């Protein structure tokens, strides 16, 4: 008998009918001799409906009460799934964050899991075949209900699996992780394996199948993760520490596309790190989230290109002007219609010529490169937003040919 | 500064708009310098909606999971009310059964409160003006969520008030307790005061404003209870241990009508208590709920009339035949179209002639009396169901004239 953690997302438990489908999937697994801890999200639109109710009674709902309110969503789906399992003659019971002893920090709406009291879970698993756990929620040191922020149920599931030292299976309406978001590159293939570090870099990949906080926990505790579809038996994607030995590590595993970027370029600045400190300090203080930064220095003058995620261009301009007050001779240009396209792969560490293939592919697709940054396992470029799709397609095609070229 | 417990029922928090109305009522009270522990029910039809969801996933939902499911209803309304109070600049927070430490028995769907951990409530009331408490729910010795059965939120509120030693105000869409159900006798007056024992006898009175389990707790711990309307400032009804000294105790406080009775008469039985034991033992074993019992014995033969609540006449006949097997010479007759009409008043203990006035009023209204039982503070008669309204009207009129006659 093996113990396994499974997680079903909101679209997998959206209706009573969906919940019965999930129950049948669990029943089949139990019939194979496994015991399960199943983490569930709230049903479909429940969370949005509750937020809308909150906004009807308050112009700025208290975060503490919002968490108290939202946590009812998972309790509802957990209880219903346990009932559906009973109806199929599988012994099951639901546990909420109080009952499971999920301790978190006290930051409402975005708490972090601090500890889990596994003795309670193990105790209950002695009596029943399936324990259904409310995802997304925990209890603060003051005994208040907290929620874990976006993707929180993934985090709950992976944390439970990490603490139990067992595998974790994440089910949703997507069949796994793809080499590129299928909405951008429909021909992108589903990946059999992804390494934790790649998954972290590819957070934007694969229609948000998996949240990066959960992956960080999986990496830290080496939890075997699996992402698959609730509604089909198609094989999904395994996220692991290292690939199986028989599998050669590809150079590039996936292509990530982030459409929501804005490019800012400053030219003619005097050299000096203090200026950068002032500049990025000022932007951070104004709540501007800076992503890619490239600097080029020549002849005592520095040019800086950086990209900004979801900021307002007027605010960026104001922040920059404020930070550079008293300095002359510089100019600012901006472009709010750019996208970031990245190739990610731990194989880059040991392969040469990846950058050449990367830029050659973009060149072949006539994509303009507006800025570049690299890490050990990633190359990112800023491109005009309307060329992002072509860029991704070209990169998917280039790096999918790896086997022929190896 | 006084501490007060208030309870708002499901119809009082049915929508976001209703919740804001309740919040304004609380804000006014806080402005007068009071601190409040407010117990809430689930919003309007929430409980029914959740039960319907449960029935969609299971043909006979597990009671444990049903309680887990239903308890989300009160948590939702409690969080929303706390948010609405914040929005009106009153400090408030919601607490569920885990947070408040409401210990109950382990009987799902119908648990009894065993204890409350008031230290947590008092601690929170040091920081905020209003603590909003989820009604209807508790935690079993095993740490499972339980619910308290019909009227459970009244019980929660009264138990909190009892433990704190403070008054309890029950708000609903009814303005108080009436001398008779206004649907039966529209001219029945609202009562200013009712004594606990009367309230217990009058459980069927006043459109189910107050559940008898709560009243039992109120009586035991002498909690000052008040029943009033959420939506008007009209003065409601106080339920107390003894009336204020300046108020003369009326002979009859209220007239209760129970339309759902069935009358069974046995004649020609041999005398003997053992026979009654067999008869009522057999009915109880078959789940028949016997209410009024009258026996008349003469010439060595006994006649028995009893009334049955919500049973099936065939089952009653079978039970009776089974229990009287081997005995000859008796006959059974039954009437399934009867009602019970009762006059209740602790003043009966010290007044004479109440029975005479009672029967004279019925006689004046040409009501047939099919059976009678009395207690220290109640006279009940069985009457043909179609005469129950006339009987109630006549009794309300008769005993409302007490002041002239005193």
From TrEMBL, chains A, B:
InterPro entries: AceGlu_kinase-like_sf (IPR036393), ACT-like_dom_sf (IPR045865), ACT_Aspartokinase (IPR054352), ACT_dom (IPR002912), AKii-LysC-BS (IPR041740), Asp/Glu/Uridylate_kinase (IPR001048), Asp_kin_monofn (IPR005260), Asp_kinase (IPR001341). SUPFAM superfamilies: ACT-like, Carbamate kinase-like. Keywords: Amino-acid biosynthesis, ATP-binding, Kinase, Lysine biosynthesis, Nucleotide-binding, Transferase. One of its GO terms (molecular function) is aspartate kinase activity. Pfam families: AA_kinase, ACT_9. It comes from the Bacteria. Its EC number is 2.7.2.4. Pathway: Amino-acid biosynthesis; L-threonine biosynthesis; L-threonine from L-aspartate: step 1/5; Amino-acid biosynthesis; L-lysine biosynthesis via DAP pathway; (S)-tetrahydrodipicolinate from L-aspartate: step 1/4; Amino-acid biosynthesis; L-methionine biosynthesis via de novo pathway; L-homoserine from L-aspartate: step 1/3. It catalyses: L-aspartate + ATP = 4-phospho-L-aspartate + ADP. Residues 264-346 form the ACT domain. Belongs to the aspartokinase family. This is Aspartokinase. It comes from Dethiosulfovibrio marinus.
């Amino acid at each position: 008998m093996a113990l396994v953690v499974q997680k079903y997302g909101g679209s997998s438990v959206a209706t009573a009918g969906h919940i019965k489908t999930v129950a049948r999937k669990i029943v089949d697994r139990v019939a194979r001799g496994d015991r399960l801890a199943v983490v569930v999200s709230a049903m479909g639109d429940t969370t949005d409906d509750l937020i809308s109710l909150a906004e009807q009674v308050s112009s700025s709902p208290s975060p503490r009460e919002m968490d108290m309110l939202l946590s009812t969503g998972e309790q509802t789906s957990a209880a219903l799934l346990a009932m559906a399992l009973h109806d199929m003659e599988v012994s099951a019971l639901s546990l909420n964050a109080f009952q499971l002893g999920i301790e978190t920090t006290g930051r409402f709406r975005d708490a972090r899991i601090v500890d889990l009291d596994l003795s309670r879970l193990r105790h209950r698993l002695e009596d029943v075949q399936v324990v259904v756990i409310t995802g997304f929620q925990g209890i603060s040191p003051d005994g208040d209900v907290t929620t874990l922020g976006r993707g929180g149920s993934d985090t709950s599931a992976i944390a439970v699996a990490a603490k139990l030292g067992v595998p974790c299976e994440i089910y949703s309406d997507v069949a796994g992780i793809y080499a590129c978001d299928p909405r951008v590159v429909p021909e992108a293939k589903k990946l059999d394996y992804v390494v934790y570090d790649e998954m972290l870099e590819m957070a934007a990949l694969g229609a948000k199948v998996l949240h990066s906080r959960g992956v960080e926990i999986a990496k830290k505790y080496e939890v075997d993760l699996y992402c698959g579809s609730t509604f089909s038996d198609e094989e999904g994607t395994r996220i692991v520490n290292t690939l199986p030995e028989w599998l050669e590590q590809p150079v590039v595993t996936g292509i990530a596309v982030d459409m929501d970027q804005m490019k800012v370029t400053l030219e003619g600045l005097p050299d000096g790190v203090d200026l950068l400190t002032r500049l990025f300090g000022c932007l951070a203080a104004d709540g501007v989230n800076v992503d890619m930064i490239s600097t080029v220095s020549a002849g005592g003058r520095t040019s800086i290109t950086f990209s900004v995620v979801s900021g307002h261009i007027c605010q960026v301009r104001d922040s920059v002007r404020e930070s550079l007050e008293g300095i002359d001779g510089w100019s600012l240009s901006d472009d709010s219609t750019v996208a970031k396209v990245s190739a990610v792969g731990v194989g880059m560490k040991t392969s040469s010529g990846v950058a050449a293939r990367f830029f050659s592919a973009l060149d072949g697709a006539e994509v303009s490169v507006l800025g570049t940054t690299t890490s050990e396992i990633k190359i990112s470029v800023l491109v005009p937003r309307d060329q992002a799709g072509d860029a991704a397609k070209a990169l998917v095609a280039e790096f999918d040919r790896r086997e022929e070229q190896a």
